[in-house]
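Hey, quick one: can you model this chain's 3D structure?
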Amino acid sequence: MLELAILGLLDERPMHGYELRKRLSEMLGTVRTVSFGSLYPTLRRLQHQGDIVEDSSAATATRPPATARRGRKTYRITTRGKETLAALLDEPGTSSFTDDGFGVHLAFFDRTPGPARVRLLEGRRRVLEERREGQRDAAARTGPTELRYARQLTLLGLETSERELRWINELIRTENPSQGEPQ
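Sure thing. Here's the predicted structure for all 183 residues.
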């Protein structure tokens, strides 16, 4: 998912590592932070694969002079990187349905082909339905007075899953009005 996020952001404009990390944190929220220890190896791997290159001409153009520093590498996406990005957006894997994976894909839904968006939404719906069933079972196992706060936490998770399922079903209807909700 980190490769998808990096390629998607670099498709917008060239950026240096610090700026990428900041944008990734904004995109992924405070729940998941991207460390420099995972960002830079991924950048090197993408560079080695030919998906991105260092862009020395953009190094100063993308930063205000007050924050410009020597040694910061600015990266830009290549034609091969654009093809890789398109393939990642078009063929979501099972990790795309998880909380982190779905969030990254959702950030680039405008660039994701319609059929792939529907596959992503349907896959996410399956994950949420399984989660909801587990939460229902857990809520049924504890009575209203025993483990009161643990039960409240389970009920909050159940409510959150049900709310996201309603939202997902609405997105699926928007993408494909004949699809609707599952039986």
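One thing worth noting: The longest helix spans residues 114-141.
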